[in-house]
Give the backbone structure.
Amino acid sequence: MTMIPIPLVLHDVLGKQQTRSSLLLISAAVAIALLAMAPALADIAPWRSVLAALLIVDIAAGAIANLTAGTNDHYATRSRSRWVFLAVHVHLPVSHCCSAHRSRPPSQRGLRRSPVE
């Protein structure tokens, strides 16, 4: 398999090198995610669309890239970088759970309504 060198600024995302098939798979994941979300992005303010598109690209590319040998090899030799990566990303599911819990009405959160309501 031919390994393709990755630019230095993308090493934390893709590693030092990737196979062509890995890069194609990552690109396909990004394209599918953006196409799937395009109708929703069209209905919001342009600045929110751009921000959402960047997040979609980051999540879609990262989900696949983290499964590739190039990214795994990169983090295998850099334990500090792996811990920084985990610290940066661990807040996402935690904050989602907390915000999802607060966005539901009290009756669905296991809280009783006060008699005043």
About this structure: The radius of gyration is 19 Å.
